[in-house]
Write a structure and sequence with these properties.
globular, disordered C terminus, 3-stranded antiparallel β-sheet
Length: 188
């Protein structure tokens, strides 16, 4: 089976100069966890995940609307083509612990995105043997913290900082609001 048979076609994209808020809106509106970042010719230049955005906001101490995608996106992006086999893509995803891959045409334009969920749905429909479970297990392997990461975290000047307003205490800081989710379970 090829990638084009199970990928999500024409994903929403952002530009490097857009804010993290623009990418968050795409993720919210389209129920996805990553957004490919493209240039003016729709060629891939990076990717941003929901985790990348959270960590950027935390480490930079700024709200999403104040941070440009160019400062938070991953610039080293693994990708695939529509003609790649699902087996080769599963190996790539597992080897590099990647949950989503942009699908690119010959000019490096984004034509789709392939997620571990797309692979799982495709495997469920197919009678062919699949290694989606093994791929998911290797992707989900916890990250092992290196000695260098521990040293960096222990040095206050290099450790992530929290944003706070001068003179504001924790108890007086306003809480962020977000749309409330609709209840899906009835109380008994």
């Amino acid at each position: 089976m090829n990638v084009e048979q199970c990928m999500t076609r024409n994903p929403k994209t952002c530009f490097e100069g857009d804010s993290l808020e623009a990418a968050a809106r795409i993720m919210w509106d389209n129920d996805c966890g990553s957004v490919p970042i493209v240039d003016g010719s729709s060629r891939l230049v990076g990717i941003i995940t929901d985790r990348d955005m959270c960590m950027a906001s935390y480490t930079q101490g700024a709200p999403l609307h104040a941070i440009r995608l160019s400062s938070a996106m991953a610039k080293k992006v693994f990708s695939c083509t529509p003609k790649d086999t699902v087996e080769s893509v599963e190996q790539l995803m597992g080897a590099h612990r990647i949950r989503r891959l942009p699908v690119l045409d010959a000019q490096r334009r984004v034509v789709g995105i392939l997620s571990i969920g797309d692979l799982a749905r495709s495997a469920a429909k197919s009678s062919a043997r699949s290694s989606v479970g093994a791929t998911l297990a290797s992707i989900s392997e916890p990250h092992k913290v290196t000695a260098a990461e521990r040293i960096l975290a222990a040095q206050p000047a290099l450790a992530p900082r929290r944003a706070s307003k001068p003179g504001a205490s924790k108890s007086s800081a306003p809480r962020a609001s977000r749309p409330k989710a609709k209840a899906t379970r009835r109380s008994r």
